[in-house]
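Whether sequence alone determines local backbone shape is best considered at the level of individual chains. For completeness, the protein is quoted in full, as a sequence line and a line of structure tokens:
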Amino acid sequence: MSETTQKTVAILCGGGPAPGINTVAGTIAKAFLQDGYRVLGIHKGYSGLLSESRRTEEITFAKADEIFKTGGSYLEMSRHKPKDSEFSTKFFVENNVKLLVTIGGDDTASTANRLSSYLKTQNVKIQNIHVPKTIDNDLPLPEDQYTFGFISAMEESCQIASTIYEDSHASGNWFLISIMGREAGHLAFAVGAACHLAMIVIPEMFNKTEITFDKITRLIVSSMIKRKLLGIEYGAIILSEGIFHFLSEEEIKNCGIKFEYDAHGHPELNMLNKAHIFNTLLQNELSRLKISIKSRPVEIGYHVRCVTPSGFDKMYCSTLGMGVKQLFDAGQTGCMVTVDALGNVNPLFLKDVENEHGKIRTRLVDIESNKIKMVYAENQQYLIKEDYEAARRYLPNPEDYDFFNILNWTEADIKPKL
């Protein structure tokens, strides 16, 4: 059968890596190959798809069987966000593409929707189905469903964070751990809660006050002093890098850290170690308070994105891949594939989760959930009003380091509902 007449499924990956990409792609390939489709992998995401010199390759059963269990992404990725003017029908017509599968986050999904709409105006009918991928867990799936890659990245991060916590105990030091999470604090919270870290700092906890470096620093100091009062001279704090998404540019510029700036005058945050920034600000504050506590920065970042997927993600990603085939057979398009714990496959239509600008909405940590409240109420260490007198040994004004005062919370804000 010639390339122009055989029905083709095209797969591309956008954004950054996450454990399970190859499992999804391999499973999709196997499911469609057995129905006689040609499966074409596209390297370099949308950049590759829309390039005249694109690199594609057929994904055979043997290749799918080779890659499905591995970490990383066999199909090279790209963060390119094409403009509508870059769209073309040529690739889809020449290859008789019936389905475009996009594996990625919110930007990848939004672009797929725009591209599909463009093709429709050009009388080129294809289906597009998105597979939600991100270790940040921040796509708006049903509440009981994770974005794939999150669990594997969390488990690897827990191994690292647990080792760091053991080091803090052995060495008598403190560690400040910064972890990925572009806007949401899901990964930081999960790792911090699982590893019993002394303080978890995520952007969602500032729901009643503006996020500032000063408040973040005081939360860290609050935890350090509380543990001193408990006779504990070590510990670890975890902070979500998503905090930076909500800091004002003025706040960033005035923090005393030297940043490089892009052509638009915005600080190049991706070029800096976030843990180093937090640690520098902390040491400045401890020096001002004349408190001698050693702290060291640790960044958990790129090295958890390409780990071998866990058993959970291998199974989950396999069901997502098979779910793509089910949705395609049912004629669904313009949607994300979702699969619940019982294996029920459902479409989540992109138009239902977009904001007014056509961007997929971010799923933030539900700071009102019982799980979040329980951790902050029962398994975090911080100063409260009853600690003021004892804390004056270290702080002239302990009320400024009161956990509730910093966040403008009351005890009712962390009381779980029974």
Observations:
- The chain has a mean pLDDT of 91.
